[in-house]
Amino acid sequence: MDLPIYYTRAEYIETDTGNKVSRRATISGPQNIILGGKTIIASGAIIRGDLRRTGPGHAVVISLGRYCLIGEGCVMRPPYKTYRGNFNYYPMKIGDHVHIGANSIVEAATIGNHVEIGKNCIIGKFTIIKDCAKIADNTVIPPNTVVPALALFAGSPGRFVEDLPESTPEMVEAQTKQYYTRFQPLPQER
Amino acid sequence: MAPKIEYYCPCLAESPYPPPPHLASSSYSFHALHNLFFCEECDAVRCNRCVLVEVSGYYCPNCLFEVPSASVRAEKNRCARNCFLCPNCRNTLTVVPSDPPEDVDSRMSPIVSTTLGEPPFFLYCNHCRWDSAEVDITFEKPTGLAAQLQKFEDSAPESLEFERLKEHFEPFLRASSSSTALPSASSHHVHTNPITAAASSALARDIPGVGKYNPLSRSRIGRDKAAHRQEYPDYKSRVEVGHAAALSGEVDVELLRHLETVGEVASLEQRWSNSWVTPLRASDLKPLRIPLQSKKSKRCPSCRHILIKPEQKAQSTRFKIKLVAANYLPAIAVTLPHAQAALEMMKRSSAKSVSAAAAAEEQQTAGALIAGHSYSFHLAFTNPLYDPIQIRLAKAVVPAHMTEDAEAAERARRSTFQIQLPSAAFPVGAFAEAWEYDDEDEDMFLDEDGVELLDARGKKGKDGRGKSRSVGIVDKRANVTIVSGEVLIPKEARGDVKFNMLVSYTYRSDDPEPSEEVEVGTPSRSHGTNKAPEMKNFSFYTVVDLGSIMYREEPKLTADL
Ligand SMILES: [Zn+2]
Ligand SMILES: [Zn+2]
Ligand SMILES: [Zn+2]
Ligand SMILES: [Zn+2]
User: Fold this and answer.
1) Is residue A169 part of a domain?
2) Residue B103 binned pLDDT confidence (cut-offs 50, 70, 90)
3) What keywords would UniProt list here (chain A) (predicted)?
4) Comparison of pLDDT for B316 and B246, the residue scoring more
5) Residue A58 domain-assigned (yes or no)
6) What is the pLDDT, as a whole number, of residue A18?
7) Contact A77, A105 (CB under 8 A)
8) Which residues in chain A touch residue B113, judged by CB atoms under 8 angstroms apart?
9) What pLDDT sits at residue B450?
10) I need a labelling partner for A8 at 20 to 30 A (CA). Which of A128, B24, B173, B364 fits?
11) In percent, how much of chain B has pLDDT > 70?
């Protein structure tokens, strides 16, 4: 029903699990990043998997679930703080069916499932966004904010606006799956 | 704007007809499908405007603590843990110690551990940098702050006055709740709570001639109350109103005389919705304990059956009961093929990443409806039921009283658009779980019913007076059927192409009811027993909005879009 969203085949790398990652995105420290499958990283996005907790060994810095979208020009950066005199980065965990609009900056600690974040948002350090919440376009969520489940937040600082409908999980799931289906190579390249 | 469709909820109105779509007020009666509920008992659509809402649990939106209803009252609907709102910007405040941060890095970041540090502690806003030391609120320990703040709140003159009012009305409330016990038991449909009763009674006493609000039996209850009301003494306030006003008035004048910036005066929002006391000066605003939020159950307004019942856990997005209309009525999506075709061409040629804003703008011009042309539109029906359904469409009937002046009606008819919908019923395939997981959805499930398809694309060629345009099924696959309709816009037409459409569908009923009750039942996802299938019918109104009519001097430019 909805129109396809085309991309040029040369720009995107498709993984075995169906993740589509733009060659024009900056993926730092890819060994510290987990993509759940069928997740799209758009052009110009920056994902800082290199900002990891100090110490030996391998650590997951940013994990994304299935059917996520990191929009054009987004910056995903793990949160940091100085605790007992030690500066450290902390991991960022993002659930399934999470869409992040273009040019948003995300430093959240956790984002649940079925979460929609609009364009041009700033999601402050250690923010916790629960399931099925929605952040409107151009919202600034200050550090340490908790966004409860099924809540719409907007403004600067982001505040509660209204409860989202009970059918939000199904709607967001359908939309994110549909988006993945619509996101396809130009027809002349197929 | 993209074309859209919304569903009608009659909200228990007596007239079966939806309001005419050109009335601005009609927007209150139409809703997106995902916002609607469905009562199986009444076999009717319900919306958020008409359902009965009950609180099923309280929680703090910041610490997410589930507050037992017993403590909600004592804690005045606010969080009793360490959750506070900035009185200036409404951000959540952080508790910080007063010792300075050790290194440069953490001074730049206001995130400071609360487990360490030196007293006194204060509340700090990491958005606008307000801190509670500005209003002389500091704490010796970083714990139990809410209890300390509540002490401030409770000792405010406003709070004490309110307590006194409550005390005064207490016996009255008790009496009125016992007197309303009888009528409310006899009819459970309309529930008058004692507070409403007390308020309306007080209003009736103060303003002669105002009837008491009582939807049941106005006069009878009014008389009951009249008998009681003399027994209560007049209220005496703690502070004489005139005296208090005179006092604060002079202070206010003095303040205003020395104002330098507007920001010194607290905004209405800061004062009234964001503060317990209502100070005039922004610098007097106090931090607030965060108001609790609630999880809500929803009931049918007519039969009181539960439509929505959330799970106990505050942050769960699951529901014990969730009767949403999307599981009963077909979902409908409306598109304008000429607009889509234009957009598709644009996207392909200009290759990748057209910015979303630009695309939306382009869509607006490409998808314009120009006076003097006719266009086809597509309606895609998605069946949520496990059985196939048959759908029939009709333009909404306009009630007779709205078209009394025949001549005016004819004149109106000539200058408004004409809509053609497929007249025959068409099938929509059954919903199957498997399709949900088939992301590619490449297979075409055609013609199991021997449906003839129109050529979906071939019709956009002739843009003239819509000669070879057809109305009927365009595509049918899985549980989706797309039909096409047509709109003819006369040269003199203006405004929005917006019309009410009646959708009727027949489905197999599983109701074990006796077959005398024909024609009404409840569409249901559950599979039936081994009884012979019984066909039932359900109808609902929608409003289809195809967009506004554009008027152009030179239609030739657009003719070959
Ligand atoms: Zn309603
Ligand atoms: Zn709290
Ligand atoms: Zn603030
Ligand atoms: Zn009902």
Assistant:
1) no
2) very low
3) Cytoplasm, Cytoskeleton
4) B316
5) yes
6) 96
7) yes
8) 81, 83-84
9) 39
10) B364
11) 64
Residue A170 forms part of a structural domain: no
Which is more confident, A25 or B550?
A: A25
Testing the interface with B: which of A166, A168, A172, A176 to mutate, by most B Cβ within 10 A?
Answer: A166
Q: Give the CATH number, domain containing residue A5.
A: 2.160.10.10
- pLDDT on residue B150: 81
Average model confidence (pLDDT) across chain B: 75
Please, what is the end-to-end C-alpha distance for chain A in angstroms?
20
**Which pLDDT band, with edges at 50, 70 and 90, does B112 fall under?**
very low
* Cβ proximity of A189 and A9 under 8 Å: yes
**Beta-carbon neighbours within 5 Å of ion ligand 4:** B 39, 41-42, 300, 302-303
Are the C-beta atoms of B204 and B222 separated by less than 8 Å?
Answer: yes
Average pLDDT score, chain A:
94
- With an 8 Å Cβ cutoff, is B205 touching chain A? no
Q: Is B107 on the interface with A (CB under 8 A)?
A: no
Distance B318 CA to ligand 1 centre (A): 23
Exposed / middle / buried, residue B481 (Cβ in 10 Å: 0-12, 13-18, 19+): buried
pLDDT digits (tens, 9 = 90+) for A86-135: 899 999 999 999 999 999 999 999 999 999 999 999 999 999 999 999 99
Task: Decide which of B55 and B177 is more confident.
Answer: B55
For residue B240, the tally of other CB atoms under 10 A from its CB is 10
pLDDT value at residue B438: 46
B297 pLDDT higher than 90: yes
Whether A102 is in a domain gets the answer yes
Distance, CA B39 to ligand 4 centroid (Å)?
A: 5
Residue whose C-alpha is closest to residue B154's, from B144, B143, B139, B164: B164
What is the tally of structural domains in chain A? 1
Rg (CA), chain B: 31
Record: contact A1-B335, CB cut-off 8 A: yes
Rounded to a whole number of angstroms, the distance from the CA of A117 to the nearest CA of chain B is: 15
CA B315 to ligand 2 center in whole angstroms: 14
B6 CA → ligand 1 middle, Å:
13
Q: Do B189 and B182 touch, CB atoms closer than 8 A? A: no
Q: What is the domain range of residue A84?
A: 1-108
Contact A148 B315 (CB under 8 A): yes
Per-residue confidence (pLDDT) for residue B393, from 0 to 100: 94
Decide: residue B447, CB within 10 A, 0-12 exposed, 13-18 middle, 19+ buried: exposed
Tell me, in angstroms, the distance from the centre of ligand 3 to residue A149's CA.
23
The owner of tokens 């009923």 is B509
Closest residue on chain B to A180 (Cα): B439
